[in-house]
Amino acid sequence: MTRLDKYVSENLPCTRSEAKKLICSGRISVKGEIIKVPDFKIEEDCDVFCGQKRIEKISGLYFMLNKPAGVISAVKDDIHKTVNDLFPKELASRIFPVGRLDVDTEGLLIMTDDGDFCHRLESPKKNVYKTYFAKCSKKPSEDAERIFEKGIAFKDYTTRPARLRLLGEEDGCACVEVEICEGRFHQVKRMLHHVGADVIYLKRTGIGRLKLDQSLEKGTYRALNEEELKMLTEN
Ligand code: URA
Fold it and tell me: Which of 26, 109, 126, 172 has the most neighbouring CB atoms within 10 Å?
């Protein structure tokens, strides 16, 4: 629950005292009823109107985090350090990760306070491809690219078409790039294992057209700019 004047000032371009004036003048209605009490308590998701116009809830925190290995993709945990612990308290209490990376996976993770945005980005219908860089114990089998493209029938699900690109060798490991448009548990690791290449190191480098900012140190974050946000919401 939140105060009506707080809701109005956060979601209209006006200050808290202007919001109070709007409310007292009878311009604001909640669930069809005019409310003239600034500290009237409302649910965050209920219908609030200014005249005939619905006041949409603006939720506006969007960060790119370079997740380090060793922290879990959760808001809170009694034992492990979480991705939220990498943010100052006042931000950490408002945001959550969009999807998950395994504890040992590094790289691009979006953190937001916008549930709809999160839902859209995660929806399989949206076909947002996520790009991963992996170092593997061995080179994937010869037909691995075709197998990824066709989809792999695991016992519990069949993967949607994915892309695999061989990048070369580094420190005796085979380096590959994988693009998938789902986010099943251990999906990249399972897919690479299926083609004979066990993952030793995994990093997410992109989501849709958005690429991880190379200048972001592990464990640090920055706000997404307008253009980057558009890249994530364009479909
Ligand atoms: N696939 C995996 O196997 N692990 C991740 O963290 C993300 C995708």
Answer: 109
Pocket mutation for ligand 1, best pick of 67, 103, 132, 212 (most atoms within 8 Å of C-beta): 132
CA distance 33 to 48: 9
Question: Which CATH architecture group holds 62-123+213-233?
Answer: 2-Layer Sandwich (3.30)
| Distance set, CA 224 to CA 44, 88, 186, 221 (Å) | 25, 17, 27, 9
Tokens 């005796």, residue?
172
Task: For residue range 198-228, list pLDDT tens digits in order.
Answer: 999 999 999 999 999 999 999 999 999 889 9
Check if 2-54 and 129-207 are the same fold. no
Token pair recorded at residue 197:
């290449």
Ligand 1, pocket-test mutation among 186, 195, 200, 205, most atoms within 8 A of CB: 186
In CATH, 129-207 is 1.20.1280.170? no
